[in-house]
Amino acid sequence: MPSAKTPPGPPYARGAMAFVLAGGRGSRLMELTDRRAKPAVYFGGKARIIDFTLSNALNSGIRRIGVATQYKAHSLIRHLQRGWNFFRTDLNESFDLLPASQRVSEDAWYLGTADAVYQNIDIVEDYSVRHIIVLAGDHIYKMDYEQMLAQHVESGADVTVGCLEAPRSEASAFGVMHIDETDRIIDFLEKPADPPSMPGKADISLVSMGIYVFDTEFLFDLLRKDAEDPNSAHDFGKDIIPDIVKNGKAVAHHFSRSCVRSASEKEPYWRDVGTVDAYFEANIDLTDFVPALDLYDQNWPISTYAEITPPAKFIHDEDGRRGSAVSSLVSGGCIVSGAAVRESLLFTGVRVNSFSAVERAVVMPYACVGRSARLKNVVIDRGVTIPEKLVVGEDPELDAKRFRRTEKGVCLITQAMIDRL
């Protein structure tokens, strides 16, 4: 503890703005993003993916947030309007929705991640913030951005890049970097086909989290120059960061330094839930006795839009028809009527009817499972009605003909698929 004479650390977060990039489709999530952007996909029994990034900003002390949207943004915008409308302008707080709206020219939507910030420079300038932290809105993690902001100021960096260690086999989906002994980035490759490994760790690469801290004026000058370059992709990973690595000072911030963990979380937790398999596994992992991600940590709550619903209900108590849920997350408004639920997540308002069995399932809001259905290793989209006696997860060939079946045997079920049966 600091002595009474020691002043507290400077609250860099209060002078920063979080700019969240939430316009991506996330095409590898297949039909889950047919009607919604990836950041709006449901996660964890109650939240949306973007809630983790926004909660990190809020819990870190950042009170100015902008969210740039583009692809099929209605579901996301509606969620943000309902769940994140509590910021107060009289306390120098703000929450701006920044949809692509042809503000620069009539034919220019957001051309890239850097362009999304560039097109909103005039809005951000009105807030006179000292730092901008650029965030991706489609990852699951808990992180104190104040620690990263402090490192940025103390190191005198032009940009500070959040990074973590990842298996080399998966690193081609990210920006990959080399650093020296002072954490200065000396090379940066955006999504290389053959990712380089870390020194002494042949199977590990150091990858970008898509989190960047800039001094505001420095960033705006850079973005204005980039906007005039006809050969630029107007992207942070492809253009902005490599340019700073070459001509300025780019410093790496290791996620392990600022990740937020409760007493039960043994390792730093970060997930890109960009595929159906990764999305399914990250959700199902939450049903573990001691999950790798602690959603019950009151010191770092994950905020979201909370619908007004009655409590979950479990009814019928006889052999073969007993409403029960074991190792599962069950949200408000759910009714488990004479059915067995195991290792599953039931989002708001789900109904599971008598004699059915649901195991290792991610069931999104207001879906209904008919009587005597047997479902295993499934992701069920919002509002889907599962017919009586439907069996999924026992016949791989039949499942693949009717539903979206992944390499790991997870079946994604939408209403359109059900209607074709």
How many angstroms does the end-to-end distance come to?
Answer: 64 Å
| Low-pLDDT regions | 1-9
Overall residue-averaged pLDDT value: 92
β content, as a range?
25-35%
Q: What's the total helix number?
A: 10
For the biggest sheet, the summary is: 9 strands, mixed
Q: CATH H-level name of the largest domain... which superfamily?
A: Spore Coat Polysaccharide Biosynthesis Protein SpsA, Chain A
How would you sum up the global shape? globular
Topology, element by element:
Elements: E1 16-21, E2 42-43, E3 47-48, H1 50-60, E4 64-69, H2 74-83, E5 94-99, H3 113-118, H4 121-125, E6 131-136, E7 140-141, H5 145-155, E8 159-167, E9 175-179, E10 185-190, E11 204-215, H6 216-227, H7 236-247, E12 250-254, E13 270-271, H8 276-285, E14 313-315, E15 317-318, E16 321-322, E17 324-326, E18 329-330, E19 335-337, E20 340-342, E21 345-346, E22 351-352, E23 357-363, E24 368-369, E25 374-380, E26 385-386, E27 391-392, H9 396-402, E28 404-405, E29 411-413, H10 415-419
Family: Belongs to the bacterial/plant glucose-1-phosphate adenylyltransferase family.
EC number: 2.7.7.27
Domain Nucleotidyl transferase: 18-287
